[in-house]
């Protein structure tokens, strides 16, 4: 089990967080943490690479309260698949951890 990505999200920007590397598949857990003093909205998408389409979002404007955490577990990615995130404020951190295996 290892940490693959740790990012402080900018406000209002769809951001690529992690892409599964060549030769591997990964099983990951994703945690979004609101460090701020007020609630915000967060989004999480899985893509085959490139900017997320409307269908790629698995969380969309999820209301994350102050000091709140959103955790998604058991996400499996193949080579080239990516995780993207968005937050309405600049007080959200995202961490991706998991395991990888040869594809």
Structural overview:
By secondary structure, this protein is mainly beta. It has one domain (2-102): Jelly Rolls (Sandwich). Helix content is 0%, strand content 63%. It has no helices and eight strands. The strands form two sheets. The chain has a four-stranded antiparallel sheet with strand order 1-8-3-6, with no helix packed on it. A four-stranded antiparallel sheet has the order 2-7-4-5, with no helix packed on it.
Keywords for this entry:
103 residues; mainly beta; Jelly Rolls; four-stranded antiparallel sheet; 8 strands; globular
User: Which structural class fits the helix and strand makeup?
Assistant: mainly beta
- Counting structural domains, the number is 1
Mean pLDDT: 97
CATH class: Mainly Beta
CATH architecture: Sandwich
Q: Overall 3D geometry? A: globular
Quickly count the helices.
Answer: 0
Q: First CA to last CA: what distance?
A: 17 Å
- What radius of gyration results from the CA coordinates? 13 Å
Give the H and E element order: EEEEEEEE
Tally of strands? 8
Report the uncertain regions.
none
- Proportion of helical residues: under 10%
Q: How can the largest sheet be summarized?
A: 4 strands, antiparallel
What share of the residues does DSSP label as strand, in percent?
Answer: over 45%
Order of neighbouring strands in the sheet with most strands: 1-8-3-6
Q: Provide the CATH topology.
A: Jelly Rolls
